[in-house]
Amino acid sequence: MDVEELGRWVESGRIVDFILVVIACEAAALVVYHRFTGGGLGAREVLPNLASGAFLLLALRFALARAPWPTLVCAVCAALAAHAYDLSRRWAAKRALPSVARDN
Question: Model's pTM, two decimal places?
Answer without folding.
Answer: 0.81
